[in-house]
Amino acid sequence: MKQFLKSLPVGIPSAIIIILVTYLSLSSDPFHTKDIPLFPGADKLAHVIMYMAVAGVFILDYAKHILPHHAKINVELALTVSASLLGLLLEIAQLVMRNGRGYEFWDWIADTVGALAALLIVRWWFMPLFRNYFLGRHRHSHKHHHHHHKEEASTN
Question: Considering only CA atoms, which of 22, 34, 40, 18 is closest in space to residue 91?
Fold first, then answer.
């Protein structure tokens, strides 16, 4: 599995999640749930979870691309905003397409909350696990290399 994940070209996971979320957002009833009674706010929770996935995949796709370097917060913020904008564009598409789905401002707010939650969870909890999975022991030598390099520069 690790070899498959390492060999997966950067951008493919992001493209897959965009296609999946676009399908789920624009098809009239993707899971045939119209007749299933759900708890109040279930659709908002679904939006939060979907956009946690979108932003999380965007951020991890980028992080894998720049390994062994660390992800930069400004890029992660831009990817989070991109996930939120995808949600807004899909809400507008629902409005324009008139396929039984409607634009809801609060759906986009839920998308944005999910994207921000992903940023927080991935950056401050999951990223060390992710880096360790892909880099293993090399992570320590990478840090040591930078530290050693700085010492050399200061002695010259």
Answer: 22
